[in-house]
Model the fold of this input.
Amino acid sequence: MVSLARRFDKVLIANRGEIACRIIRTAKGMGLRTVAVYSDADRGAMHVALADEAVLIGPAPAKDSYLHIGAILEAVQATSAEAIHPGYGFLSENADFAQACADGGLVFIGPSAATIRLMGFKSAAKALMESSGVPVVPGYHGEDQSIATLQQAADRIGYPLLVKASAGGGGRGMRLVGAADEFAEAVAAAKREAASSFGNDQILIEKHIAKPRHIEVQVFADNDANVVSLFERECTLQRRHQKVVEEALSIGTTAERRAAMSAAARSAAQAAGYVGAGTVEFIADSSGFYFIEMNTRIQVEHPVTEMITDIDLVLEQIRVAAGAELLLEQKDVRFHGHAIECRINAENPVSFRPSPGRILHYHTPGGLGIRVDSAAYQGYEIPPYYDSLVGKLIVHGKTRTECLMRLKRALDEFVIDGIDTTLPLFRALVREQDIVDGDYHIHWLQDFLARAVLEE
Ligand code: ADP
Ligand code: ADP
Ligand code: MG
Done:
């Protein structure tokens, strides 16, 4: 049993799917009692079966269940849970939820509501980073949202540029603008979308970096402002600005660049008054690296960091939330080997159209260095209401070459029948020379998909 300064014995996981299962596993391993919450559509879900207790919180639509703060707090009351882990997505970056937990005397396993609010707003976050000496993508992130000011800023930045919803996330709320005469219309469209999706229509403008890589740094901070960097993850293989494959460490990042990015990420966390696990995202090319945003939660791709550092990030989150100090100092953080994660989505592997339905046959690969974080099982009916991520295959090897060989073998062994999944895409990717060489940028996957013919 891990010793906790601010003891709690029961944690409620305000999430579903593979991340709820993954959190329950660590919490149970620490001797904590676990409470799952579930919607009508998730009666047969794995996280419900894994938890010690489970509470039905509402109908299938997320707004009536997993996003319903009142229903989740009622489940807390009913089960006397003392801490809440929000996972990723859903309420994980909702400052009102973190505040409601704090007001109710509950431990929210994440940073403070104030930090979530600050970093959830890309404009404010970029302004803070700039004043803290962290390099940011050149652009405009001011308060003045008049079209004259925005147009002037855009002309100064130059085209192509990106218009981003300041409150956006999940790859949504972005518009690419190729020339000055498209700008006003793109701003109007982005503002409309931002207002309806995020309840706030502020936008920022960024220079569109042509062929960058997405490289992010995992940071961890305790309540005494000790901040360590657990090095970077490469998440460059994306479709529609969403990550598909992630690896650690990043191929092509020199030791010098790694040290500079780690230092910048630690400065970012310090400036934000950060506590717990967080991710500082950058885009990078040969000219440098530039902050784009900070995610104030556990990331989908955190397992690749765990595989190369042997640090259980959820365990550390729980320890820090319970008031414990970090046991680590920067000089003690070491990495070994290489890890790659493939996001297995219930989707057509080329169009990415969701493919909910029943899994008729399910077999996961095994062997040294193979980890499957999943919420799927044979006979499981994937509901159509939520994100299509059903599991993740994470593979570790002593070298990137060994990792890729193991990944190829593991993908060939993985069987999910009855629905479309992204497995055929990964089987094709591991055979591509550019992937083997690590020679790609954020648009590479889209270009590949335009010419790909995948075998089932
Ligand atoms: P990560 O860096 O962890 O991959 P993502 O941006 O992919 O972060 O988001 C993690 C999860 O949260 C995904 O399941 C995604 O669908 C969901 N998500 C994140 N932001 C939003 C948002 N604004 N609206 C809807 N879903 C979101
Ligand atoms: P989100 O909150 O939706 O994750 P991000 O700002 O993190 O939004 O951007 C998502 C992705 O869009 C990045 O991973 C990157 O691939 C691409 N992107 C973001 N900003 C830029 C930019 N200035 N130039 C080129 N690509 C960008
Ligand atoms: Mg992002």
